Amino acid sequence: MTVATETEYEVVIGLETHIQLQTASKMFCGCSADYANAAPNSHVCPVCLGMPGVLPVINSKAIEYIIKLGLALHCEIPEYSKFDRKNYFYPDLVKGYQISQFDLPICINGWLEIEVEGRRKRIGITRIHQEEDTGKLTHTNLNGEEVTLVDYNRSGVPLMECVSEPDISTPAEARAYLTKLRQMVRWLGIGTGNMDEGALRCDANVSIMPKGSKVFGTKIEIKNMNSISAVHEALGFEIKRQEEELQAGAVLKQQTRGWDEEKRVTVFQRLKEGSSDYRYFPEPDLPPLQLQADYLAQIRTSLPELPEARRDRFIQEYDLSLYEAELLTGSRATADWFEESLGEEKTPQRARATANWILNELFAHLKEKGAELDEAKIQPRQLASLIDLVQKGTITPKSAKEVFEEMFATGREAAEIVKEKGLPQLSDEAALATVVDKVIAESPKAVADFRAGKEASLNFLIGGVMKATRGTANKDVVTRLLREKLS
Ligand SMILES: [Zn+2]
């Protein structure tokens, strides 16, 4: 009998993320970059079709956007940067080369903080460079013939490539990194970050090595994952596959593999090219970029308060838990919604009530409808007026939920719904006193018990008043009146 000795492996993951920038025009020409609903090949011109003799012009908005992301990810922005040609042939690359950046990217040496199972970790950002997107190929069957259709609307759309250091050690960390990166892109308003639309695409490099080894294992690249959960799953599969190969004594070859969404496995695509295969050289049609200090300072001042800073401020200023603050800063829209509903009332008590309404009622209702926050009919100041009604004792918390339902469905004002439903809470003392007297007169036993020291009898009497007012009485006022009258 042989006993297999299981080697323990260390996992090394680096992610290369392509992010489309949501600019009005393309990277080097005036064509519209919003091609989502456009007819194929309708957003093209001689520049993005790579006609001879044309000259590219740099889109300054795209440069501003990439610098925004770089600053948000703690990158250095060197003064000098330049564009290079990356040469390769593929039908979706109409020029035969892509304008990209090789040795002098716009952003270098940054980091992004993630949190997995309560542990915080910084993932290094090696670089973020600016480039242009390619066209799109569609393989299909046309009149019984296998054909490939090509659409150049995407050709030349601004694209950033964000390369992480190989600091990621588990699929869960990769998922957290991508989630944070996407949150930041959306937060800055520079891209949609929608993976299913290809606006954010991730290639993962993963290798494994025996624990404690100083020599990295063979790097294998995985492509074609169209969601963050697919990246998580593909990495999990690939790590296990590499372990099994190595256990069986195989030698891994550097290669590119694709994620098969249906079979949920990675499949071999090709052996990996090195960068020398691309024959990079400086783009002769574009000047080098020199980024002036005052230009960078201007962009830095234009940055919004970033997610982590805002989360920490919510904890400090409003006394919210880390969990609540994380959820409320999950997107800039949510954080804005929260602070808008707070208005001038910035007390911790009010913040807690507002956070509860948003995180419980509002989120649950949105989820049930499959809607996003910006589609909600109820507006922040309307939620504020509902909370006012509860805090002033005009309606009970229970009725408030009913009112909220209606507000969520229709976007109508709280006060209007309260009036229509006849929900006002009875806190008028004279009116309540009459009911209290009646209940006391009808419940001699409970009254006697209470006077004999049986505190629980008070609840029976309160219940009587609530029943008589169909639950609309203000419980605090009722309790006080009963105590006064029975003492
Ligand atoms: Zn064009």
Helices and strands in order:
Layout: E1 9-20, H1 60-72, E2 80-81, E3 84-87, E4 97-100, E5 107-116, E6 119-132, E7 136-142, E8 145-151, E9 158-164, H2 171-188, E10 200-210, E11 220-225, H3 228-247, E12 255-260, E13 265-271, E14 281-282, E15 289-290, H4 293-302, H5 307-318, H6 322-328, H7 332-342, H8 348-369, H9 380-391, H10 397-410, H11 414-421, H12 429-442, H13 444-451, H14 457-468, H15 475-486
Parallel strand pairs: 11-12
Antiparallel strand pairs: 1-9, 1-10, 2-15, 3-4, 3-14, 5-6, 6-9, 7-8, 10-11, 12-13
The structure holds zinc ion.
Zinc ion is lined by residues 26, 29, 31, 44-45, 47-48, 156.
Bound compounds, each kind once, are:
zinc ion
Counted up, domains total 3
N-to-C span: 87 Å
SSE succession? EHEEEEEEEEHEEHEEEEHHHHHHHHHHHH
Q: Could you tell me the mean pLDDT?
A: 93
The overall strand count is: 15
Helix- and strand-based class?
alpha+beta
Question: How many helices in DSSP terms?
Answer: 15
Unreliable spans are none
Largest sheet: 8 strands, mixed
Strand numbers in spatial order across the main sheet: 5-6-9-1-10-11-12-13
Please compute the radius of gyration using only Cα atoms: 31 Å
Strand content: 15-25%
